[in-house]
Every structure is written in C-alpha cells, then in structure tokens.
Amino acid sequence: MHRINFINAMLALCCVCSTGVALAQDNLSELRALWNEAKYDEVIIKGSELREQPFGRTLELDYMLGTSLCRVPELQVDGIKFLAWCLSNYKMAEPDKAKLVQETEQCAQALAAPKPAPIAAATTRSSAGVSGKMYHYVSRDQALRTTTIKIVSPKSFEELRARLTPLEQADSAAHKIAKLAGSKFEIKTQGKFVIASANPNVDYEGIARNLNVYEKFFATAFGLKLPPYMITVYLSPDFQQYRDLALKLHGFELPNASIGYSYREDLSLAALCRGRSTSTLYHELFHLMARSTFGDIPPWLDEGMAALYEVSKIEGERVLGMYNWRGQALNDLWALRPSLEKLVKMNWAAFDQFEDEPSMEAVDQQAANHATARYFMQYLQERNQLAEVFNAFRTRNPKALKTTPEAETQTLLETILQKPLAEVDQDFAAWFKAEKRWP
User: Fold this and answer.
1) Quick check: 130 and 58 in contact, CB under 8 A?
2) Under a CB-based contact definition with an 8 Å cutoff, are residues 309 and 286 in contact?
3) Backbone phi, then psi, for 175, in 5-degree steps?
4) How far apart, in whole angstroms, are the C-alpha atoms of residue 131 and residue 302?
5) Which residues, other chains included, contact 315 with Cβ-Cβ below 8 Å and sequence gap of 6+?
6) Where are the domains of the chain?
7) Quick one: which of 318, 319, 289, 317 has its CA closest to 302?
8) What are phi and psi of 132, to 5 degrees?
C-alpha cells in the first residue's frame, strides 16, 4: 500500500505543478529509457505529467503508461483501461494492434510479461503526428481513397525542434523559414503564422487574417490550444513542388490524392494552393490543434470536425461550417451510411477502411464514413450542441472508464443529446433528407 500511495501522491503533485511551455515530445526519450529499464513506477509518474503537456496524448505515451500500470499489481485495472483506450482512439499498424491486444489479455489475467514489446509509434499509421487531407470522393464512379503518408526519410527530433520559434520572435521565424523553404518561396508573418508561398498570387493578408481567426475560435470554443510558438504554413502552386517540399522538409512521401497535411513536430501546415487561398488550411489547422490538446480524439470527431471547417464562414468571432461536396457523397452513398451508433464506435481502422489493396466497396465505405461524420457535425452545429459534445469528449480520462470506451461513447452522447442514439440517427437522417445539403 505504501507504494501505491506514493504513486498516487506523486500523480496529484504532477497535476498541480505541471506548468510551462514544454512539449511532451521533448521528454519522450527520457520516458522511453525508464520504460526500457522496467522502472514502471517512474514511468507512471512521469508519463502522467507528460500527458498533460502539449501533444502529450499519443499512442506511444499511452501504451507506455498502460503497460507500466499492468506491471504494478494494484494498478492493473487502470492498465487495462489505458490499453483499451489506445485500441479505440489511436491509429496503428496491424502488428501494433496485435501487441496491444496481447498485452490487454495478459494484463486481464495478471500474466503480464516481465517486459512489454515495443510498438512502431514512428509510423504515420501509428499516430506519428502527421495528419493529411485527401479528396475522398469526386463522384460515385470516382471515389478516391484516403491513403497513408509515408515517412521515407525521417528527420531528427533535434532538427524539427530547432524550427520552432517563440511568438515574440516573429522576425527570426521568417528568416529561419526562408532558409528552409528556399528562394522560390516568399515569406511573410502576421499574428501567430509564418506563411511561405511559391504562389505569387496568394493573398497573404487574407490567409493570415483568417487563420488567426480560426485559431482563436478553435481555442475558445473547443479548448484546443497550441504552445506559444509560431505556426508555419507552406503553400505550393503545383503538386510536384508540394510533393518535393514535403520530402525535403519532413521526409514524407505524399500519396497522389494529397492536397494538404499538418505536422506536430515542427508546428507546420502544408497545402496545394493554385489560387489566392485554400480552405484546406482550416482543415489542417484543426488537426494540428486537436493533436496538441486532444491527441486521443476518436476518428468520427477528428475527421468530422476538420471536414466541417474546410468549407466555412466567419461571423464575427465565430466560424460556421457550410454545406460542401461531402453532402453529395453522403447522398450518393446513402445505402452505405453507417448508423450513428456504429459510426461513433469505430476505431481508426474501421473508419478509414485500411487495406493495402482496397476494393471498390472499401473505397465507397470510407467515403460514406467520412461524409457521415462531417454531416453529423453540421447537424450538431445547427442544434447548438457541437461545442458541448466536443468538450465532453475532450475532457474524458481513460482511468474513469467503467465499461468499454465504445459503450461509454454511446452513453455520453445519449446523455448530452437526451435521447437514445437510435432516435438521434432517425432525426439525423430526416434532417439530411429534408433538403439538398450540398452546393
């Protein structure tokens, strides 16, 4: 009991004293060392503190916490909760999923191995901090599938971290990004954003002004806050340049359908921008801010919210999602629309229909999943329930689970919406079909 009381006391102290602007990834190497040395009490204390820092909620950190808790007899129940949370809320490759399932089963039987197996948390499918926007759908006969961004030439943590510039040093940020982007890019700063564009016709002031409004709105309405560093925006007018820049800056190999991505390690957004502006940036800014505060965001909420704001308008200090092309996708693929209960219980593999060689059925199903999630957010927005739903999920804690993450997702939604999800689903379907909800 002395051991468990000590751990709980230290956890409480961490919650009170964890301040400053450190990023969780700054201290992950130290946590990995403790975990590899089987110092699980220290991992639990240090990991719980890191989890509250910007970008702290990650698959790797929660996996280390869960497997460490499983190796402290009095805390095995919490370990099972963390591992179930990982399986429900994070992207991961199939080998990692198998390890998590095995660890969960062993923990439940009090048979945890002396040392847990490591997972490949550096892959993009394993939540390595990159999110990308692709066109999922053009027409019923031209559905394009979301594919994984590959890291083919990883950049060191130190190199990426050196790109961050405190907000009060905006001028030095512009100089730093100019050297990184190259002579074809013009650099301008405004507010919290450094914009590097190779498109001479881009509306720098308009893009920066809108991004600052969106950033403030996401922070005030949804509690999503970035650390106090400049955010870099890279804009390329053609795909090859966009692809080359991603490889040069981040070591990414982009799929052909990619039109934008965000990367937490250097607080950057990148997008194709052939005209004066691009709404893809709002989609990617949401992903970046969500990863800072809410890294374990479930897929329907993450992609639904990002897609809601990719076509949106500013009204005063508010931003409102508008009907967009995903409405036509949902209408055309209505027979494949998942019920809301099924949608909100999907993990990332089910939501994105990951397959190495996807069938046309899988491509269609993915498009239907994404479109349903996006229009469920629109439905909640029009009923003034979006912020309440989002913030209720953002503030959840794995240790508070009483059943499975999936069952508690349904319970939480039904509590907020004050009706069974089956009734919400019927109302959602009637609302969508009542009028044309796409441009």
Assistant:
1) no
2) yes
3) -65, -40
4) 10
5) none
6) 2-126, 129-295, 298-439
7) 289
8) -135, 145
Could you give the C-alpha distances from 248 to 82, 151, 163, 257, 267, in angstroms and in order? 36, 11, 14, 19, 16
- Is 129-295 CATH 3.40.30? yes
407 CB neighbour count, 10 Å cutoff: 12
Give 11-50 as a DSSP string. HHHHHHH--SS--GGGGHHHHHHHHHTT-HHHHHHHHHHH
| Total residue count of the chain as it appears in this document | 439
Per-residue pLDDT of the chain (439 residues; tens, 9 = 90+): 445 443 444 333 333 333 335 678 888 899 999 999 999 999 999 999 999 999 999 999 999 999 999 999 899 999 999 999 999 999 998 899 999 999 999 999 877 677 788 887 644 443 456 776 554 444 444 444 455 788 899 999 999 999 999 999 998 999 999 999 999 999 999 999 999 999 999 999 999 999 999 999 999 999 999 999 999 999 999 999 999 999 999 999 998 889 999 999 999 999 999 998 889 999 999 999 999 999 999 999 999 999 999 999 999 989 999 999 999 999 999 999 999 999 999 999 999 986 656 788 888 999 999 999 999 999 999 999 999 999 999 999 999 999 999 999 999 999 999 999 999 999 999 999 999 999 9
Residue 146 DSSP symbol: -
- What tokens were used for 290? 């969500």
- 3-state class of 261 per DSSP? strand
Rounded Cα gap, residues 189 and 205, in angstroms: 9
The full DSSP string for 227-247 is -SBPEEEEEESSHHHHHHHHH
